[in-house]
Design brief:
Pfam families: HTH_28 (PF13518). This is Transposase-like protein. It comes from Paenibacillus rhizosphaerae. By secondary structure, the protein is an all-alpha fold. The chain has 4 helices and no strands. The chain has a domain of about 45 residues. Helix content is about 50%, strand content about 0%. The mean pLDDT is about 80.
Amino acid sequence: MAKKGQVFSSYSLDTKRKAVHMRLQGMTKKEVAAALGIADIGRLKVWMRKYREYGESGLMDQRGRSRETLTIDRPLAEPVQH
């Protein structure tokens, strides 16, 4: 659970690619985290799982609306009835 005032780190796609490549070359999670300045070693485990399941596209940030959903015409909200 996040704590009040906690700041989360975000990492570029390039950093994620480097981390995955380093892990595939046999480096430990701790070594990779130290080399790339990654604060949470658990992130590497998540990136490796996503890479194995989806390839490089799994490393891209999926938060927010995708371009496909922005092009679909739909009402923003239902009208409120009083």
